[in-house]
Specification:
Layout (H helix, E strand, L loop, with lengths): L4 H14 L5 H4 L5 E5 L6 H17 L3 E5 L6 H10 L4 E6 L6 H4 L10 E10 L1 E6 L7 H10 L5 E4 L3 H12 L5 E4 L3 H9 L5 E5 H9 L3 E6 L26 E8 L4 H14 L3 H9 L2 E6 L1 H21 L7
Parallel strand pairs: 1-2, 1-3, 6-7, 6-8
Antiparallel strand pairs: 3-10, 4-10, 4-11, 5-8, 5-9
Helix pairs in contact: 7-12
């Protein structure tokens, strides 16, 4: 069968649309780039997104805007990002926004396989705090107190990855402490400072003002390294409780259709602008450590966090959503 020259031209054009042209990553971005953030304005992640947006806009020669889409335990932002189906719309988020989702919901409104890591930006510092009035000075002290007074102490829990890890630790250690669910971290730390709950674990930025005011004590850092702003506070690993180790990861994600070449380019640009010491200093104030990393390293860190959360969920008898 003979094929017309016109038909061959159409087929060639269609093939060209399907196969990215060489150097396509070098010509990106071609228009405005959007960072979708699952937290509100003024949050540490939002501040980080805006710091990088400003510098990347100058580097890329295109506007980079931040769109805050809080709510729905991170799902509002994730669905908005995936719904755009656009390589100029990226998710700038903490991984704790989604690593626990499969174990907290019977059904998900998105498929976790539909987006992939581009670059890690920072590690959020996570601290365990107790009221200043509580007679404990360390995590071992707290554990001993819980054992001495089973069922009499309360801890503030907010649905998410950190909450699963802490709950899993209490279960595995046979510690009887009552969880008081909260939706708002600010309210949780306020109640902690007044002694209405006896323990709260969250981003250091949330508890640090109350610590500076002398209303709460910081007894441990969950990250693998100490916090430079409170270097006297040991990590959970240092005091003998590595099962609670949890690094807050913040980074940039793309839809899965983005080419590895383009992901690598964006990661390289993020790392380049992240060399600015001003960014490191600004992030540290918000309780974050600047830790830029490329797609492979970031993907490995996300997988490690997923495995940690999955192990805690399994110990609690939770099954992943299908």
């Amino acid at each position: 069968m003979r094929v017309s020259k016109f038909a061959l031209t159409i087929l060639a054009a269609m093939f060209a649309l399907l196969v990215p042209a060489p150097g396509q990553a070098q010509s990106w971005p071609q228009r405005l780039v959007k960072f979708v953030v699952p937290l509100g304005p003024g949050s540490g992640v939002d501040i980080g997104a805006r710091l990088f947006a400003d510098r990347l806009a100058a580097r890329w020669g295109q506007p980079v805007v931040v769109e805050n889409r809080p709510g729905g335990d991170g799902m509002v932002a994730i669905n908005a990002f995936l719904g755009a189906a656009d390589d100029h719309t990226l998710l700038f988020a903490p991984t704790s926004s989604f690593t626990a989702h499969p174990f907290l919901y019977d059904q998900l409104s998105y498929d976790p396989r539909d987006f992939v890591p581009i670059a890690r930006v920072s590690n959020t510092l996570i601290a365990m705090a107790v009221p200043a009035s509580l007679n404990v000075a360390s995590l071992p002290d707290l554990v001993a107190l819980i054992r001495a007074q089973p069922g009499k102490l309360n801890w503030a829990g907010i649905t998410g990855a950190v909450d699963l890890v802490i709950t899993g630790f209490f279960r595995s250690a046979n510690l009887d402490i009552v969880k008081v669910p909260y939706r708002d971290g600010v309210q949780a730390v306020n109640d902690l400072s007044e002694g209405r709950v006896q323990m709260y674990t969250a981003a250091l930025a949330i508890s640090r003002p109350h610590f500076q005011a002398g209303k709460v004590k910081l007894i441990a850092i969950l990250n693998h390294e100490r916090a430079p702003t409170v270097p006297e506070v040991p990590t959970v690993t240092e005091v003998g409780y590595p099962a609670m180790k949890f690094d807050g990861l913040v980074g940039v994600f793309a839809v899965k259709s983005m080419s590895p070449e383009l992901r690598g380019k964006i990661a390289a640009d993020i790392k380049a602008v992240g060399a600015d010491q001003v960014i490191a200093e600004r992030l540290l104030v918000t309780g974050q450590l600047l830790r830029p990393a490329g797609p492979d390293e970031f993907a490995a860190a996300v997988d490690e966090q997923r495995a940690l959360v999955a192990a805690a969920a399994k110990g609690l008898g939770l099954k992943a959503a299908q």
